[in-house]
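For this section, I looked closely at a protein sequence along with its fold in token form, which I now present.
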Amino acid sequence: MMQTLGERPLRPVIDEATLSEVFIALGIGPGEVLLTHSSLRSLGPVRGGSRTVVRALRAALGPDGTLVVPTFTPENSDTSRAYLQRIQGYTGQQVEELRRNMPPYDPERTPAPSMGRLAEEVRTDPEAVRSDHPQTSFAAIGPLARKIVSGHSPDCHLGERSPLARLYEEHAKVLLLGVAFTSCTAFHLAEYRVPDRPLQEYHCVVRVRDERTWWSYTDVALDDSDFSELGSSFERSGTPLRTEKIGRTAAKVFPLSDAVDYAVTWMSSHRPSCRT
């Protein structure tokens, strides 16, 4: 019988050994490059928290493997979904005050609060390096970390001049740990590889020659509204995808290049703006 505290059952705590078993079962192996999206809240209690998860992942990848996480910062933009939700109900004066106090992006210091505890654990690791994009940066640890995050063009969120393209070239795998395909960043690379892709103007706060300034640029209009449908279709496609139960949720691992290639074909036939 499960032990209870009052009326609430005590949830089993996940330890590093359990995580290691699951990661091995998922096919995460030495020397690989792994892009990880996670929700530790969905996973349930972990002994040692996010540090334990990172330790288990790095053990599975070995000294020659590279761990990569998204460290996006939509909080420093006035065109992001996070910003638009935040200013709901604000007066014009409150909006102006918020804009005046939004700090510029700093790859060494700017946190990524919306990316979760695991991403922050990697970002703040002394060995981590981070890309320079002011809204869609990535952080990485391992031998290929600098190669993957370098050269992230400030006017290319998630396209050919971003770490996603380098991950594609390095035959990376994707781990969805407690999150759904709606969080699968790899699908965004496909948006740059379809015909007639729509564009959008973006604004964010940056630092130029030690001066805080607002910067505007044009890039692909990113749209994750159909990623759940796309992910379900991808899962049924026969792609080598592994799923394992862990804690209160599940984890999935699959080749990033397979996800991108499938998404290009799927978007070309399912998105009106991409049809030729």
Summary: The two ends are 60 Å apart (CA to CA). Confidence is low (pLDDT under 50) at residues 1-8.
